[in-house]
Amino acid sequence: MKELPARFPSEDFAYYTEKFPACFFYITCTPKGVENPYFNHHPKFDIDEDALLVAAKAVGQVVCSYYECD
């Protein structure tokens, strides 16, 4: 696992959080063996597809945890 410095996303996502409970987090998805990956809006962006399962589980956990607390 590799820890990165905190970043502030410049997304319109903040507007959603004004209306609905929300959570924003990054999923590391750099393909194995790639040292200098392209960011997600770049045409050469590539993803480690194994990370998709981890991301789906993480999002599912956040949603389930939210509804268990109510």
Automatic annotation (TrEMBL):
InterPro entries: Amidohydrolase (IPR017439). Gene3D superfamilies: Zn peptidases. This is Metal-dependent amidase/aminoacylase/carboxypeptidase family protein.
